[in-house]
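User: Here's a chain of 192 residues. Predict its fold as tokens.
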Amino acid sequence: MASRKRLNGPAAGALVAILATVVLAADQFTKYLALENLPYQREVPVLGDFFQLYLTKNPGAAFSLGTGVTWLFTIALAAVAVVVIVLTVRSVRTRSWAIVLGLLLGGVLGNLTDRLLREPGFLVGHVIDFIHTPWMWLWFPSAIYNVADMFIVTMMISVAVLVVIGIRFDGSRERRTADAPAESTTDAPADR
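Assistant: Prediction complete.
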């Protein structure tokens, strides 16, 4: 299989920045639409129990956990954003990692924007959630999320996949042999 050309630093950075901006804009625009058009904390069935809209303001993390320490989530989101930016600038030279980290950064920035700018105030703002899919949550029927959350979860799964299949930030692959412990090589970039 032919490998694709590696990205240079500025190209990787530009791809991450563009994708992050698109996700951030989509997240904030959908939250704006939800705030302007949905009743607060009332179900709006779109496709019965399969897909509903339910506007709420979440002071905590997933499933409203940690509502008393909202500022910690703000710091965690900011730290993730900084790590993604540093990794991009220093190491990312492959499209797959640039795409995954760009989409992840956009999701993180979407919820970080809420934490910084929404009521009740700076660092402790509530995240706007409005998407409800009851069929998806057998043990957590009250789980409600937003566009940023979807990108954060799916891109974290994508990060795990890239790590498991051994694609490094520079596009090289980690090679494993049957008789030796895991060793790494610097094969040609394996960007997909």
